[in-house]
Amino acid sequence: MLIHRATLLDGTAADIRVGARIEEVGQRLTPRRGEAVLDAGGAAVLPGLHDHHVHLRSAAQALDSLSVGPPTVRTKDQLTHALSHAVPGPDGWIRAVGYHESVAGELNRATLDAVLAHIPVRIQHRSGALWVLNSAALGRVGLPGHPDGRLRSADPWSDALQRRESDLAELSRRITATGVTGVTDATPDLDANDLVSLMMAHRSREFRPGVRLLAPGKKILHDDRLDLDALTAWIRDRHHLGQPVAVHCVTAAQLVVTIAALKDAGSHPLDRIEHAAVVPEDNLADLAELGVTVVTQPNFVAERGDQYLADVPAHEIDQLWRVASLRRAGVSVALSTDMPFGHGDPWAAMRAAVSRTTPSGVILNGAECVTPTAALTMFLGWPDRPDRPRTVEIGEPGDLCVLSEPPAVALAELDAALVAATVIRGELVYFAM
Ligand SMILES: [Zn+2]
Fold first, then answer.
1. CA 54–ligand 1 middle distance (angstroms)
2. Distance 24 CA to ligand 1 centre (A)
3. Cα dihedral 320, 214, 338, 152 in deg (nearest 10)
């Protein structure tokens, strides 16, 4: 297809011919017979966004799940109300997501039974790593005798809970409407069935964005089971296979152990640290020296910032969701949303990276703010090189995001509502009417 009157991010006016790759970028290109033409009218045309850390199955499931965490649900009464008024899905289950202990403490099967005894209910913790089931639900999954109904993601039953018909097509529509043309699924331990079904969904055009999978090189750490030797050995094994690793670090302890393991095992140029939610000052230089890429989510500042201010010790606040200080230290950084655990709008994540404003309007770590151009560019990386931005040039992938405003306005607003069209491999997959 041909895109007329585009303005590139550097202000250059151009026409763009795009197929599976960008074929031509020039002045006044003439449409070929039968070629589709999109008139950008001088608005910005950028490489399609890539969300470098998402969980597709969970996101598709969350589309029809009830949200039972802040800000939607904040108190025990609100939780009881939400659950007792919920309409079960077609399979008779009530599925809720986003739970946090600030709502009603630690839940278990008894607390859920007191609200709903006969309908199977499962509540996912907002970390994504814990489910709580009531007795009816435990019976359905073959665990009627489970002591408290609190099931962790590492347990073998979790596959059965996760795998269920989900609407990847609807998720695809929502994602492409934000200008995203590719995603990296960071779910650890995806098995062969998951891989095949995601690839089939992509090939059958049910799910349009390109999909890159981090598993099996992805590892989640748990503070109560940190084992430096085991982690070092795992990293060494992966590297011997020529494969990079992606280690999920949400606490300072997890980061420190991961850095020690990488120093011992040696790093691979494509190694990644996911989240890096807490980075002590001392570790900035370590990360730069190791050459790892940090794939982080400043959107959590905008989504959960007030809770951090209430819960996190004052001296640790400036270590939260760093972006600018990582870049200043020479660490490669890419952004992502962690959808569905974070809100899946990359533009909201960019605004959070720029303003660092919590829901109540407090600025959290103003020294970590980045420019709008930097925030946008950190969503333009290659799937396998998140730190290297793609550009609108001949030979680059035919994945583009067409906005409705010129670059200066788009960068000032960073709003998904400005996405006018999304092109994947030369095909128009989203067009704002
Ligand atoms: Zn994640």
1. 6
2. 37
3. -90
pLDDT 10s digits, 247-271: 999 999 999 999 999 999 999 999 9
377 in Cβ contact with 308 (< 8 Å): no
Rounded distance from Cα 294 to ligand 1 centre (Å):
13
- Name the pTM for this structure: 0.84
Q: Which residue has the tokens 């031509």?
A: 24
Residue of 65, 73, 79 whose CA lies nearest to 115: 79
The sign of the dihedral angle between the CA atoms of 303, 306, 311, 314 is: positive
Q: 182 CA distance to ligand 1 centroid (A)?
A: 16
Q: Across the strands, what pairs with 293?
A: 272, 332
Centre of ligand 1 from the C-alpha of residue 338, in Å = 5
Gap from CA of 33 to ligand 1 centroid (Å) = 46
C-alpha pair distances (Å), 189 with each of 9, 55, 102, 154, 216: 38, 12, 29, 9, 6
Question: How many Å lie between the centroid of ligand 1 and the Cα of residue 381?
Answer: 18
Q: Give 320-349 pLDDT, tens digit per residue.
A: 999 999 999 999 999 999 999 999 999 999
Enumerate residues with CB within 5 Å of ligand 1 (an ion).
Answer: 186, 338
Amino acid identity of 147? P
pLDDT in tens, 124-177: 898 888 899 999 999 888 888 999 999 887 666 655 565 444 578 889 999 999
Q: Point out the least confidently predicted range of 18-32, 58-72, 186-200.
A: 186-200
CA R_g for the chain: 22
Beta-bridged to residue 25, according to DSSP, are 16
Dist. CA 104 → ligand 1 center (Å): 24
Q: Report how far ligand 1's centroid is from the alpha carbon of 315 (Å).
A: 26
CA of 247 to the centre of ligand 1 (A): 11
DSSP 414: -
